[in-house]
Specification:
The structure is a homodimer. Helices cover about 40% and strands about 20% of the residues of chain A. Chain A is an alpha/beta fold and about 220 residues long. The first copy, chain A, has a single domain, classed as 3-Layer(aba) Sandwich (Rossmann fold), CATH 3.40.50.300. A 7-stranded parallel sheet of chain A has the order 3-2-4-1-5-6-7, with helices on both faces. In chain A, helix 3 links the parallel strand 2 and strand 3. The longest helix of chain A is centred in the first third of the chain and has 26 residues. Chain A is globular, with a radius of gyration of 17 Å. Chain A starts with a helix and ends with a helix. The relative contact order of chain A is 0.18. At the A-B interface, helix 1 and helix 5 of A face helix 1 and helix 5 of B.
């Protein structure tokens, strides 16, 4: 039983730090989105598309979580008003961002100048669902090639999301993906969820999603 | 520091149980493959293709690891000589199979009748790399839509693999994937690795991979 108790301690400590992060964000009227998905679902591509749409409307920073490498931080550097890279490889939790890492990242950002922080979590459909970061919104991206059964296999992360983006819609002719079955699974476990369909290649749904996000940020700040 | 010590204990205990699993498998001349990938890379589809190729040549069981659901076990049931489903949702480790779960599964299989056990791990590129299961081979599947940068971002799992399968080759015309860059990344961190290119839709590379696996099983048993 020893391990379970310790895990409980960690999760409680994480909740407390996450609450602190949220207070800090609220003081500065900064809205934070925790973006989660499997590896390669298009988190970074979607972040780039959102920033292009919101340019001139919001000041946006990105916190990039990754096991190793700065590949994604380099990609978003030009578009973002600020970027922080977190590499989790040698940290006690490597499979997800935890609130303490985001706390450090927030302290290095010019919060007084920002409206929005996009937090790109580690590519993983399991661990990130366990760790609150202090975010205002949890966004899950699921891409067509992964298959429509993902909500059934990773229910925790889908059940707890404010919004789900079905990405890589351009691949619909080439993969077996039942959009109706996917939507029914997600809505069954998460009745209030908002679902978007996007492609970062054809720009399908990008404007609609970005406008919705802008509304949420304005309502939240 | 408390947590790190406990994690160390867990990993040591896991190694010890994994050694026991391997002994049990060796006693029965059963070869075990630990199949790892991100969610939706095609583990189950590849398992189905391998079993079709090896039908009549090897007796094969499948151990299906998943957070929740029996979706995959149902798919492989008809082709496999035996199937065991492990759901990790309410276990202390939910993001990967651990040796103790495989120990339980092996005890419910007719090992004396089997040649090969295919262990489908939880869809995750982080946690499964930490837990030995007693397998003879670690196989990582990476699919084209995930992008060629995955080895850079999840180096542990690629560095430690005996073989890597690049799956969903049929999508090459529709996604941005640099095969050369992918191969160079993997071979740079894992010089002895064998890399295959497959499609479970067009059957590209399936026969080649299955023949190679058959050789490995015969050499190992």
């Amino acid at each position: 039983m020893k391990k379970i108790e310790v895990v409980q301690d960690i999760l409680e400590a994480n909740e407390s730090i996450a609450r602190g992060n949220k207070q800090l964000l609220d003081q500065h009227k900064v809205f934070a989105v925790n973006i989660m998905s499997a590896p390669g679902s298009g988190k970074t591509s979607l972040i780039l598309k959102i920033m292009a749409q919101l340019k001139g409307k919001l000041k946006t920073a990105v916190i990039e979580g990754d096991i190793a490498s700065t590949v994604d931080a380099e990609k978003v550097q030009e578009q973002a008003d600020a970027v922080v890279q977190i590499n989790t490889r040698h940290m006690p939790e490597s499979c997800a961002l935890i609130a303490a890492m985001v706390d450090q990242a927030l302290k290095s950002l010019p919060l007084e100048e920002l409206d929005l922080v996009l937090i790109e979590n580690v590519g993983n459909l399991v661990c990130p669902s366990e760790f609150a970061l202090g975010e205002h919104m949890r966004l899950v991206i699921s891409s067509l090639p992964e298959g429509h059964d993902k909500p059934l296999k990773y229910p925790m992360i889908f059940a707890d999301a404010h919004a789900v983006v079905v990405n890589k819609m351009d691949l619909l002719p080439y993969v077996d993906f039942d959009l109706g079955a996917f939507r029914r699974s997600v809505e069954g476990m998460n009745p209030g969820v908002t679902i978007f369909q996007t492609s970062c290649k054809t720009d399908e749904g990008i404007e609609e999603f970005s406008s919705w996000l802008l509304q949420q940020v304005k309502a939240g700040n």
